[in-house]
Amino acid sequence: MQFVEVVKQWINRYFSNTEIIYLLVAALVFLLLLLTIGRYLAPVLIGFVFAYVLQGIVDRLEKWKFPHLLAVIVAMLLFVGGLFALVLVILPVVWTQLQEVLNQLPILADKIEEALYDFSEDYPALLSTTLVDEVLAEFRTTLRDSGTASLTWFVKQLPNLIATVVFLLLVPIAMFFFLKDRETLKQYFERFLPKKRPIIDRIGQDVATQLGSYIRGKFLEILIVGTATYVAFILLGLKYAALLALLVGLSVIFPIIGAAVVTIPVVVVALMQFGWSTEFLWIILAYATIQALDGNLLVPLLFAEVVKLHPLAIVASVLVFGGLGGVWGLFFAIPLAIFIKAVTEAWPREEPIIAAP
Asked: Which residue, 5, 72, 232, 267, has fewest beta-carbon neighbours within 10 Å?
């Protein structure tokens, strides 16, 4: 009975506030939606993210006496125009380099095969020639089977292609309505909240400030890291510099995991082009320097004042939400961690009672 009383007191202490119940229900509903139909809500969620980025432009235009609707239209035109200009400049180069990579795949496979046999001859205790033969035979079988099934695969992917086109059309539509009807949407959801809500208001203000700064900072980080990588690879003569720089820039969206995954194509391309040479070491050194500067200089400058998350909290959020939600879980890992941090900081606490001397 004493244990039951302790549990009851703990629940009354931390969960008696009506606002806490609202927060828990809202968080559970959002997490459930993200895990079950997150892929279908992706255009809305991404539209919300981009709307957050453009909200600063809309606010600035309204300060210059622009009507709200006109400010939204101008911000959308600037965004779409900038996106098209970026695509027209980068996409042809990236597409050309991607075609070159696909054309070079047979040569790349031959070089990998040669490297494996050379390694097995130099270090037979670590990798035997028999094992190399088995691995390569399995690889050729898989490649042959995938080639015969390519037409079937293409037919199956047609619905996904159509869904992608619809996805791309829905994102700007969602952006427009998030910007245009921001106050209307805010008032609508406030109807479901208690009238007196100091805790929810505090959490909302903290999350809005931190999340807005995080999203804008992340876009700036993508631009800086991608540009720095492209310049470094061009100066060092690495092939497919634009394609690799684009991958490196986008990898910062996914903390920790992104950098680890994108390192593989960078190392493979550099190794296949230069082999174990001084040029290869220079490229790896330049890439490692960019990653180190990003993690130790750029990220603290962009996010230190707004996203005060411990590195262990970032790792935990990436592992947990990535494991639960896959790619979308990784994409929203840090925003969800920001929300959890704001909730824990605003959570009502009972002040400790100090006994009189």
From this structure: 5
